[in-house]
Amino acid sequence: HVQLVESGGGSVQVGGSLRLSCVASGDTIGRYCMGWFRQIPDKEREAVAGIESDGSTSYANSVKGRFTISQDSAKNTVYLQMNSLKSEDTALYYCGTWPQMTHWGQGTQVTVS
């Protein structure tokens, strides 16, 4: 089955940008719809952005217009470009199969202050 490793998180100021990466191994991402999710302690996990096999994308209202999901099949990688970051974007971000998170990585922390 597919294994996922996220990277690119970190600490950034309000209004800043980050790009998260999710490298897949064990299978090709083209076989899956992929997405990004985030988890804030004591809150429900939120589906942030997803990309279908045909390239169509969907976003949570909270990130629409600020975040962009993309994928590079040659690199077997899914990206999340995050711009105009807000403090409420602070969370642990996971890459996973979309929309049901049947496979996911270890997560990468994003802190916006």
Count of individual helical segments: 0
Q: Would you report the number of β strands?
A: 10
Largest sheet: 6 strands, mixed
User: What is the helix/strand order?
Assistant: EEEEEEEEEE
Structural class: mainly beta
Global shape: globular
Tell me the radius of gyration: 13 Å
Oligomer type? single chain
First-residue to last-residue Cα separation: 37 Å
- What is the strand content? over 45%
Which percent bin holds the helix content?
under 10%
* Residue-averaged pLDDT: 95
* Unreliable sequence segments: none
Cross-sheet strand order for the largest sheet: 2-10-9-4-5-6
Could you give a short description of this structure?
It contains no helices and ten strands. The chain has strands at residues 3-7, 10-12, 18-25, 34-39, 46-51, 57-59, 67-72, 77-82, 91-97, 108-112. With 113 residues, it is mainly β.
What topology does this entry show?
Layout lengths: L2 E5 L2 E3 L5 E8 L8 E6 L6 E6 L5 E3 L7 E6 L4 E6 L8 E7 L10 E5 L1
Structural account:
The structure is a single chain. Helices cover 0% and strands 49% of the residues. It has 113 residues and is mainly β. The strands form two sheets. Strands 2-10-9-4-5-6 form a six-stranded mixed sheet, with no helix packed on it. It has a four-stranded antiparallel sheet with strand order 1-3-8-7, with no helix packed on it.
